[in-house]
Design goal:
Mean pLDDT: 79
Number of helices: 6
Oligomer: single chain
Number of strands: 3
Helix content: 25-40%
Structural class: alpha/beta
Order of helices and strands: HEHHEHEHH
Strand content: 5-15%
CATH topology of the largest domain: D-Maltodextrin-Binding Protein, domain 2
CATH class of the largest domain: Alpha Beta
Shape: elongated
Length: about 140
Amino acid sequence: MQRLVVFLLFLFGFHQHNDITLATTTSTRDSGLLDSLLPVFEHRTGLRVRVIAVGTGQALEMARRGDAEVVVVHAPELERSLVDSGYFVRRRLMMHNDFVVVGPANDPAKIHGLGDAVAALWTPEPICSNRNCGAARD
């Protein structure tokens, strides 16, 4: 975490205003990561971060238009394309997703060893729930 805060300090050391806009995904906002990082960043820099959580495409479009100084999304190819085209100055990898399937030790779905979380979710009969909304495929 300290390396990320130092990177953010370096990245915004040139900024002339007292606030910046961060366009990010709802999943990043909902993860709690920003709740941990932004207070430290704001304290160290004196900058106030305005977070706008939208879909990946919307966040990238906001930044492309100049409506956000920072983007945290998960679309590597689109990000690289915007850097290559000159819309973005630099791209840094800061996190990745892991998909983990959790279940009872007796493995009633027989998914142990599949090595593919998506395949595990598409068992013949849904056996788990996701965000309290029913079957895993909802």
